[in-house]
Every structure is written in C-alpha cells, then in structure tokens.
From TrEMBL:
Polar residues bias spans: 1-16
Species this protein is from: Actinomadura alba
PANTHER family listed in its UniProt record: RIBONUCLEASE D
Ranges for domain HRDC: 238-318
Highest taxon listed in the record's lineage: Bacteria
Region of interest (Disordered), residue spans: 1-29, 315-341
InterPro entries to which the protein is assigned, alphabetical: 3'-5'_exonuclease_dom, Exo_C, HRDC-like_sf, HRDC_dom, HRDC_dom_sf, RNase_D-like, RNaseH-like_sf, RNaseH_sf
Protein name: Ribonuclease D
Length: 423
C-alpha cells in the first residue's frame, strides 16, 4: 500500500490484518481534488498521469435512472505519483490524449463491463485490465461489491450513499465528489491484494484470460426487439397486447431520447403493461388509469392513446409473435416437455458445473457461462468426447481454463447417460 493511502486516516496504516476491526475511510488522502472542466486543466492531468507509475485506478459515474443512455458524467482516476483526479466529461468530452498517455498502463476497474462502454465513448480504452470485482468472484469472496471488497480485504469501510445519485447534476455537491474520489482511493491497493491471492490459489492465469476476454469482446449490438425487455411483459398473453407494448414502448423511447430522460421517468414499464392489458379507447379511459397518474405520464396522454390506437388498427398478420425468437434453445422449464433427453443432459451438465464451482470456490456462472451450458445440453456434438466437447465450448466462448476444467467431467457425465440408455 502506498504511503499516501496509509495516511488516509490521520496517519493510520492500512489494517489489512486488523482481526475484524474496520476503519472508516472518511476523506481522500490528499483531499478532494478540483473537478477538471477545461482543456488546459486536462492537459495538466495528462502530463501528471503520464509521469506517474504503476497501475491506474479508474471509475465512472453515470446517471442511470435519470438520463437517457449510459454516458459518463464524472470520471475518476488515481495513479502513484499523480494522485487522484476528477474529470467532468461535459467540459472534457475527449479523453484520447489521456488514453495515449496511459497506453502502456494497466487500468484497474471494479465491474469493468459496467464502465468500459461509457469510457470508450470518451476515447479512454484500456489495453491491459485488472477487474477487482471479477477477481473477487474467481476467488470465491462472498460479497464482491466495491465497499465489501475494500472492507473484507483491506479493512476500510467506504461511504456508499451516493451510488444511485443523479450525476448529471451541476454543480456536483462536495459530498458526492468526496464519495467519487474515495472510490478510487484504495482500488490499486485492492488490486495488489487480490493479485497476491490469485497467485497463491493458482488462479492468476484464469483471471488473466478473463480480463483479456473482456477487452477483446466486441461492442454489444443493439437488441433486435428491445421492447420485449419491458418489465412485466409476461402478463401480456396475446399478440394484440404485445403490439400495444411495442407501440407504446417505441413512443416512450422517442420522447425519452428527445428529452434526455430515463425512459422509466417518462412512463413506467408497469403503465405500458397496463395499457396492453386494458387497450383503452379514449383519453377519458387513460385518465382513469392509476398507472398513468404521474406527471410525466399524464403530460403525454395523447401520445399513448395514438400508440394504442395504432397498434389496435394493425392487421393480425403484423402483430408480434408470442415469445422471443433467436437462435438459442427454449427456456429450460419447457425442455422436459419438448425434448426430455435434452432435459436430462441439462440436469447432468448443471450438476457437473456446480460441483466444479464448489471445488474451486467460485460461482457457477464464472466457471462456465449458463448460456454455454444450455446450448451444449440442447445441441451436443454427435460424438461425446472430451475433445469434441472442448471444440463446442470454445465455439461458445469458453476460455481455455474453463475448458480444461470442464470438458472431461462433462464428457464423462454425458457418456454415463448414454451408457445407461437414458438418452
């Protein structure tokens, strides 16, 4: 741990072997840095971080639930020799110069998949990554939130009261800036402790593969039918109702995009489902619906009525189909009826993965992705062997370490099913 972090609590050293004693981390060790909002100030940050040494702690704050999309409204970085910086992406929307200065540095993030897309929008893209949340999962830590990891591994407690704040607020309150600075205060120290634990447990190469996979993953394409993600849509059991969900969802999305508001603040998902279940015909019908009594929902009553009317007027041939398409297997609860042999394979493969995960002290989804398990069980290779299963798992995106652990036990389990005549 660096000297600056050791002095974070009035000169106290970090209690990594504190015997359960937790020290509150109340202030950044160098105080709350000024927010970088101009090109001149950003140039100074670039120079300081280029001259710094070691890994770079990185975090970003968004305004999920308040604004449309997932853009960053504050970026925090910390590096030995440079200290902590807080960058306002509204005033400094291009971080490509900082990206170039840090091209050779390892960036340390917690739950990297959450922040990498919004950082990439600003031009900040890690070439080397250490994800402390993912490392905690591989090591079997029972709680892998940043606050829990800092507390359990380093012995400090962090204030987490502003994680769901509206970070598009300007100016940002001082207590929010303090919270943001503290989020990167000990991130590199956490990385060092987890790196040592990964080494001791023989999991460092596994983690390296996982980090590389995160960096190599292509951007997720837009969902073909994002309206199907509406919460509560399972209650809509006919195609005309689905047409209403689609029409109202698309109308809400246009308004949310134009007003830069989270769609749920324009119209809650529950209201969309209620419109699909009742299919109102008049403004009076909408005005009587309890689900549409929020100010934003009532502000656009005529829009919702037009969307419902448009859906109602469609010919049945243009109604969306029940259930989602896609190339994946059906929901697992339907397997016993549709393909009993596949259901037996799924039970067997899940049991193998659960046993391996327990043996290696990690969640099952980190030992092998559930989607890969389902696809393997639904469409196994013609020949059941470790080699054939390895090829299938590789095609499904499994990493080498996962294939090395799982291919032989999976092959044996499926071969046992065949030999018993269960398939």
């Amino acid at each position: 741990m660096s000297e600056t972090s050791q002095s974070a609590q009035s000169g106290e050293t970090a209690p990594q072997d504190s015997g359960g004693i937790v020290t509150p981390l109340l202030e950044p060790s160098e105080g709350i840095p000024p927010v970088v909002q101009t090109a001149e100030a950003l140039n100074q940050v670039v120079a300081a971080f280029a001259a710094g040494t070691g890994p770079v702690a990185v975090d970003a704050e968004r305004a999920s639930g308040y604004r449309y999309g997932q853009r960053a409204y504050l970026v925090q970085l910390r590096r030995e020799g440079a200290g902590t910086t807080l960058i306002d992406p509204i005033g400094c929307p291009d971080l490509s110069a900082l990206d170039s200065a840090l091209a050779d540095a390892e960036m340390v993030l917690h739950a990297a998949n959450q922040d990498l897309p919004c950082l990439a929008e600003l031009g900040l893209v890690p070439r080397r990554l250490f994800d402390t949340e993912l490392a905690g999962r591989l090591l079997g830590h029972p709680r892998v939130g940043l606050g829990s990891m800092i507390e359990n591994v380093l012995g400090y407690s962090l204030e987490k009261g502003h994680s769901a704040a509206d970070w598009s607020t300007r100016p940002l309150p001082e207590e929010w800036l303090r919270y943001a600075a503290l989020d990167v205060e000990l991130l590199v120290e956490l990385r060092e402790a987890l790196h040592a634990e990964l080494t001791d447990t023989g999991k460092l190469e596994w983690a390296a593969e996982e980090f590389e996979a995160i960096l190599a993953a292509p951007p997720k394409p837009p969902r073909a039918e994002p309206w199907r993600r509406t919460s509560g849509i399972h209650r809509v059991r006919n195609r005309r109702g689905l047409a209403v969900v689609r029409a109202v969802w698309e109308a809400r999305d246009r308004i949310a995009r134009d007003r830069d508001l989270s769609p749920g603040r324009v119209l809650p998902d529950a209201a969309i489902v209620e419109l699909a279940l009742t299919v109102p015909h008049t403004l009076a019908d909408l005005q009587a619906m309890p689900a549409l009594r929020t100010r934003n929902a009532r502000r656009h009553l005529s829009v919702w009525l037009r969307a419902v009317s448009k859906a109602r007027a469609l010919p049945e041939s243009e109604y969306p189909e029940q259930g989602q398409g896609g190339d994946g297997p059906p929901p697992a609860h339907r397997w016993a009826e549709r393909d009993p042999e596949a259901a037996k394979r799924l039970t067997a493969t899940r049991a193998v993965i659960a046993a391996l995960a327990d043996e290696h002290h990690m969640p099952t989804e980190n030992l092998l992705q559930p989607d890969a398990v389902r696809r393997l069980a639904w469409s196994p290779p013609d020949e059941i062997s470790a080699e054939a299963l390895s090829a299938v798992l590789l095609a499904l995106g499994a990493r080498s370490w996962q294939i090395g652990l799982a291919s032989v036990p999976l092959a044996k389990a499926l071969q046992r099913l065949e030999s018993k005549g269960d398939l």
